[in-house]
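As agreed, record minuted below.
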Amino acid sequence: MFVEVNYQKGQLESLVIYGETFAATLPLLDCKNKHVIFISNQRYYDLFSEKINQLLKESLLIDWYICPNQSHCNTLKELNQLLDFIQRFPEAEDYLFFAFGNEGVIQLTSYLQKNTLLKGDFWVLPVSIRAFAQSLIAKTKIVSEKELPVLQGTNLPQLILYDQTLTQEQQTGKMIDFLTLLTCGIVCSRDFLKELYFNYPQAQSLQRISFSGLISLLITFYQEKGELIESYGQAFEQAFYGIEGSHFLSSSMKKMLGILFHLAWNIESEKIAFNFENFLRWLKQLGFPLELPEQFLLSDYVENLLRVINNGSELLVLSEIGETNGFRKGTDSKLLVAIENYQKIVKEMQA
């Protein structure tokens, strides 16, 4: 079912199209006489570039810039290489910057289109729920090699085209996508979190049941509280970098643990009525790896977390699941107790 949504963040507007394949939709869009610059991950270039070139054969020119497959490919190094790539193009042409890939590609393209001398529109073809959510955020950033923000900007695509068929064969990717949906439930709606719990009770259902029926709600959540959703768990995630044992955790694991630690702190500091143990057991049934590395030192982590918080990363407070109540700096005692409680529950689940 073809759906169009007029999406707005502040003064910025975007047209979101979903429910149809990109192959069916692209010929309906006006790309004639444009110089199209695709910025994509290697994986999606290999799979789809030939087909897309054929679909856009009426465009003036088509060029591809290929990024690594990592989710954090929006690095300063990659931006510099991309700037070197586009400096050969004349300013006089009408450009279309087309991000086709993961969330890193979207942020990289967003920052480039906003700051380059080449004039043109910015379109997005995200390849996951996580990337789709990123395209709905007006804030964009470029990170260092340690994945810490070094440049920031504000931009929103003129067009977001979401094709669910690009994601339905992914398995690990669906678990990362599910984290985005979980965070929406935690920050925006307890009822939505319950819906996820009943619709996806085990790992098989997570792989079998499409997320397509949740797209409309996802758009609504991000229009209302997108920045809050994105901020949830970020300080806890950032605190993993630079401490002993953190290299044993993938970037996705750091993100997941950041969200769960933040939730543990919310429950502890606000005495929220929520069965955290049952929640973690559910995630374990879905296949999420909840264990921390043996080399992980809690004291080092909390010390680094307090450093991140004191540098300006205040924590989003929940008065209840789905109800936000401003930001606050966490105390070391409450943070320590919350994470110790997480560890205790996970260890008991292993017994």
Notes: The first strand starts at residue 3 and ends at 9. The mean pLDDT is 91.
